Amino acid sequence: MSVLSPATRAEAARLLTFFEEAGALRVDCGILQPADILLDLYGEDIRARAYVTQDPSRGEQMLRPDFTVPVVQMHMSGGAEPARYTYAGEVFRRQEDHPERENEYLQVGYEVFDRADPEGADAEVFALFHTALAPLGLHAATGDIGILTAAVEGLDTSARRRAALMRHIWRPRRFRALLDRFAGRSPVPATRSALLRAKDALAGAGPIIGLRSRAEIEARIDALREDARTAPLSEAQVAALDAILAVRETCPFALEQLRDIAVDLPAISVALDKFARRIDALDKRGIDVDVLDFEASYGRTSMEYYDGFVFGFYADRRPDLPPVATGGRYDALTRRLGGGAEIPAVGGVIRPGQIETLGGLA
Predict the structure, then answer these.
(1) pTM confidence score
(2) What are phi and psi of 350, to 5 degrees?
C-alpha cells in the first residue's frame, strides 16, 4: 500500500492535530531546498541519499530530505522564544541500500526551541511521542551522543586528533579505525611511512593535478608528520571509551555504569548530570524509566546532526521496517544555521506510513 494513501494522510492529520493541541504552531517548508546548505552540513555523502536537481535561477537544489534543517533556518531567522512547531509533508530519500523501502514518504514532526530547561524539553518531546504511539505497543530506544562527544573532547591528545574523532563519531567503522591508529594498535601503512621519511615528499612527483595546490599538499604532509610525533592514546583512555560504547542498560543502571566510568574519564561528568536530570524529567512525565532502554552508541549511524539526547520507536514484531519515529537534540545545528546565534532545540519525526502498515492508531 502506498505511503501516500488516504489512510496514511489521515494518520498524518491526526498527529498534526495532536501536536497542535500540545501547543505547537503548524508550519510548512518548500519541497525544493538549497543544496549548498545541506552539502555544507552533511558533506558530499548526502548526494547518495538525496535527489538533486539544477535550477537555472536558484542553482543546485535538493528534494526535501527532511524538515528539521528548513525549520531551524526559519526559526533562527526570527522565530519567537520559546517556540514549538509541527509540520507534515513528503520527504524524499534514495534507497539504494534498501530498494524495498519507499523513497517518498510522509513525515510528521514536532520541534521545541526553548533555552529554559533543555532536559525538560527532551522529556516533553519523548513523552508526547510515547503517548501518540502508545496504541502500537512499540519498543523505545534512547541514547545520548553528548556523552560520547564529551568523552572525545576530554581525551589527552592533540586537538587535531580529537577533531578527527569528532568528525567520525557518526561513522563507527571509521571512528574505530582512527581510535586504533591513534592508540598505536594498528600499523602505519608502508606508503605513509615512506612519505613521512622523505626529505622532499613531492620530489619527482611530476605536475600537480587536481584541485589542491602544492602548498596545500605540503601543509597536509606537515600535518601528517606532526600527527606521527604525537604520543599514542593511553590504554586507559581507550578502555574508557570502549566501556562507554558498551553501555546498554535501562536508564538508571546505565547512569550508574557511566558514573563508574567517569572516575577514569571525568570529562563526561557534566553530560552525565544532564542525563540524570533527563531521567528525572521523564519520570515526572509518567515514563517508566526503570524499563526504558538506554544505549550509549545509539544513533551513531543515522542521526548525524543530533548532538545530545536521541530516541527511536520500533516495532519488534516487524524488524524489517524502519523506525516508526526518531528524534533528538540538535543544539549545534542551531548554532551553525544561526550565524552565531543559537538556542537549545530538540524534536522528532513520525512516519505515518509505518503506522498504517502496523494497523493504525484509530
Answers:
(1) 0.87
(2) -120, 145
